[in-house]
Amino acid sequence: MNNMKTRIACIFMSLMLLAGLVAVAQEQDVAGVVAAGEEFIILETALEQAGLLETLRGEGPFTVFAPTDAAFEAFFAQRGVTAEELLSHPGLESLLLYHVLAGKVLSTDLQNGMTAETLSGRKVMVDMTGGAVRINTSGVTGADVEASNGVVHVVDRVLVPPTFRFAPRAEVPAPVAEPAAEAAPALTVADTLLANPEFSILAAALERAGLTEALRGEGPFTVFAPTNAAFEQLLAKNGLTADD
């Protein structure tokens, strides 16, 4: 009974928060909606740090997938980093633009399997299987908060571009006879596939199946990776499309 009461209270609080956002949004642009939301403190700070608040005050329209503070905290814990490290990351602007679409896209415009190009230049995918709405693997917990220059959808996970990485924390180097060039951190098998346009169909299938994060694990893994040409041959042979 206590668990049921807790769940009802959480749902009620979420509805109240969403109702408050909707009321604010009637006179606010999307940047103002984020700034007015008590659960978007980290997002607002990051947008300000990246110089994007003014962009989102522009004519637009924009569609913003807005991660909550809880989503950012989970992201920090998963990556083993701090908010300060994210705010100083050279790819911060690209990460944030991965959450923004040009144009106003309401929940009624979404279709299962559709993709949309973000302002970062990379695409996100809509997954509506099982009755839930997800952008990549991020669940939409509040939809259609309309603003004067677009719309905001609340998401429960930070959307992370395939190539976004944190460099290993610096350690005190051992003395060396001659300076050596620092090698770039090796990509995981998942990131290797995502970074190569020849494997875009495979990368989309892995993301859809929820296997991208698994292939970023410790491993090691051996992957037999079909190229786009291999998938296209399979699709043509069976009279299917990539969406099928």
Explain this structure to me?
The chain is of the alpha+beta class and 244 residues long. The chain has helices at residues 2-25, 30-36, 41-49, 69-79, 83-87, 92-97, 189-195, 200-208, 228-238, and strands at residues 62-67, 100-102, 115-117, 123-127, 134-135, 138-147, 150-155. Strands 2-1-7-6-5-4-3 form a 7-stranded mixed sheet. The chain starts with a helix and ends in a 6-residue tail after the last helix.
What topology does this entry show?
Blueprint: H1 2-25, H2 30-36, H3 41-49, E1 62-67, H4 69-79, H5 83-87, H6 92-97, E2 100-102, E3 115-117, E4 123-127, E5 134-135, E6 138-147, E7 150-155, H7 189-195, H8 200-208, H9 228-238
Parallel strand pairs: 1-7
Antiparallel strand pairs: 1-2, 3-4, 4-5, 5-6, 6-7
Helix pairs in contact: 7-8
